[in-house]
UniProtKB/TrEMBL annotation:
InterPro entries assigned to the protein according to its UniProt record, in alphabetical order: PAP2/HPO (IPR000326), PAP2/HPO_sf (IPR036938), UPP_Pase (IPR033879)
Transmembrane segments: 27-49, 56-75, 128-145, 151-169
Organismal lineage: Bacteria, Bacillati, Bacillota, Bacilli, Bacillales
Keyword Transmembrane helix on entry: yes
Keywords, comma-separated and alphabetical: Membrane, Transmembrane, Transmembrane helix
Pfam family, one: PAP2
UniProt-recorded name of the protein: Undecaprenyl-diphosphatase
Amino acid sequence: MDAMEMNIHAFRLINDLGKQYPALNPAFYAIAEYTVYALAVCVLLYWLTRSYHNRVMVVCAAVTFALAELLGKIAGSLHANNQPFAELANVNQLVQKAVDNSFPSDHTILFFSFCMSFWLFKRKAGILWMLLAVCVGLSRIWVGVHYPADVIVGALISIGSALTVFMVVPRLSFVHSALALYEKAERAVLPARLSSKDF
């Protein structure tokens, strides 16, 4: 069995579960399509705590995402495949998408970039974030828009990017200078401190 056959076989194992357990389809559809909004709200809430630690974490997560997206585009230029629903028969397709290159998974890159960054800064709560990222990756296979390889490569790119950014960005003086300047301006406009408590 070559790599593509293994990829298709693994896709079938996961995607066919939607046919065997159709009652789970709405949950996986919601995870695949709507958790991105929950992530955006949580990132905003972390920022609004006005905790310096949280803000450095959010900055690192955003830089990680930008780096991972760039690397993902490079990977996509070296290898391309359409979504499973466009290439295979009898796919449990729950999400409508235009046919294009699905390698690697942008959703997976987004979630692993932020969730891995959160895990590096907040080890206990970060476990839950990583579980969420895994669930999103699986959901993209379940709904028929990505192969396992799309998800795995997206996750690996994001994890590597997060580790690199975590080791570099918090040590850059201009990052702290920019945050200090921002917070000075913020205090002038919003003097009341919302909260400094981590969550």
